[in-house]
Design brief:
The complex is a heterodimer. Chain A is of the alpha+beta class. Chain A contains ten helices and 16 strands. Chain A starts with a helix and ends with a strand. By secondary structure, chain B is α/β, with parallel strands linked by helices. Helix content of chain B is about 35%, strand content about 15%. Chain B has a seven-stranded mixed β-sheet, sandwiched between helices. The longest helix of chain B has 14 residues, at about 70-85. Classes of the chains: A alpha+beta, B alpha/beta. At the A-B interface, helix 5, strand 3 and helix 6 of A face helix 4 and helix 7 of B.
Amino acid sequence: MSSDKTLFADAVELFEDAPCGYLVTRPDGTIIRVNRTFESWTGHSRANLQDRRRFQDLLAPGARIYHETHYAPLLRMQGSVREIAVEIVRADGTRLPALVNSVLCTDEEDRPRLIQTTVFDATDRRRYEEELLRSQRRERDIALQLQRSLLSGELPTRPAVEVVYRPGVSGLEVGGDWYDAFDVVDGTTFGLVIGDVVGRGIEAAATMGQLRSAVRALASTGLGPGCLLEALDGYARRHGVGQMATLVYAELDVESGALRYSCAGHLPPLVLPADGDPHYLWEGRSPALDAFGVAARRPQGACTLRPGSALMLYTDGLVERRDRPLDEGLEALRAVVARLGPRADLADAVSRELGDDGHDDDVCVVVTQT
Amino acid sequence: MNALQRNNVVERGLPDGPPMVFAHGFGCDQNMWRFVWPAFADAHRIVLFDHVGSGGSTTSAFDKSRYATLRGYADDVLEICRELDLREVVFVGHSVSAMIGVLAAAAEPSRFGRLVLVAPSPRYIDDEDYVGGFTREDIEGLLDSMDSNYLGWSSAMAPIIVGNEDRPELGEELTNSFCRSDPEIARHFARVTFMSDNREDLARVRVPSLILQCSDDVIAPDTVGAYVHERLEGSQLVRMEAAGHCPNLSAPDETVAAIESFLRA
């Protein structure tokens, strides 16, 4: 038994040489006591701290704001705070990255009496976290650049095409919405496509790049929308690209207004006739690309757009909300377009009206006027 | 979506009483007022809310362009007042919300009866002769601090937090929930807050105001409080014993007493 006494440190030794820094402060942060570990880690001697400095005075300015706006309020409201990352300025001016835990001790009437704080050296951990953050940001920047370079191509001027692309607000990654518009046959037939690939980030941007190139290449062979999507489906399956991606491909004869279109798992195009109510194009529907591991038949629909009509393609961010069924979203879009009527900035106006409703998904709207 | 949902507006107190709107500052949410508003609940209609991106607000309502300056946050305050049809409002704003109140009162003076500015600062960054207390590098340091502190928000937790706006009991259990916010939005709010310069706006306010100046407030030091007092016409300055930046939490009794005597006057 007597050997236990020599084996186990007494309370003072436990406090002074604990493998973490210890601070006891008044509720306003004034330091009453620190342990030896804190002294040796920071180079501040207790004589210079106790009753002279407040804990927050030892923090780097940025961390001091964080202390005042997050740490102190949380401690008061929760009675404890854990795992807060701060930088402590050492006596020699260098900084100690630390993780701190605090508990608020109160008296019988629940008034704050003391704050006890432990400080852990987090130098390596902080370096590692910074590396992770940096690489996450770099990846987002690459994906954004890739996506921008894919979506920033010149649009045909006849017919006029208006595009609104608004990335969702949440998260670090770019989304999977994409569009394209191009001449299929020298100035008479015009191809228009909008799509949404699964996932986000670099992978999604790369997928949309491949699908976009494939659509352009296939369109130039004169397949027409239905057959083009069948060929694209085969391409997706053979090369393992764009599984479950949705898209609409439409070809418009600029002279006659003849429109042919095909939808692979995508929301239906909306037509606003020159004189009449807007309506959806519900024909030519088939599943998303490479959806069930079998080659789907890809029918196509057709109609004629009279001069002065508008054709709107869009992605689900415009109509889908967590708190309402999709058909209500589609009806809301139809009603907004009916109210706005024909106008040059239809895509912009629609996305403003419906976008303000609160969304965190990407929104892409492409409108062409005949 | 209306402002009441978007800003997670909570009403307490006397429904027909003169309205008091409490606005929290950068960092936490409406819980910052938990020790203060009850003192006014028997004679006032109490309106609490969260700024978009904080607390129980609708995160998806965040729009970088709308909230590019504090004016966007002031517009939210005005929308809340309109939707509740509040008049002669006693607006109590802490920290950055003091300036948000200044902007709202300058835009629609008729809505406001009195302003209570708790630890206000019209500009945090030093500028020539003006001493705000911070440099641009300090603010970058704050953004770094925010990057290394997720306060219970990670991509694994975010769907649970965001997806349960209608089940607040789930949110309550999460640690650090009072200061929880979407990190991207919080960074944006930090930048807008600490880069803001609303010194010119002080002269546009005609509403009687009270400035509560704490002692040893590193975020809004004495000189800043005096600056606000000097330029805010008809303002009253009270130097509090409370130390730090959050007297609403650290010294609620002193805070309540100061507001009460201002409202009685």
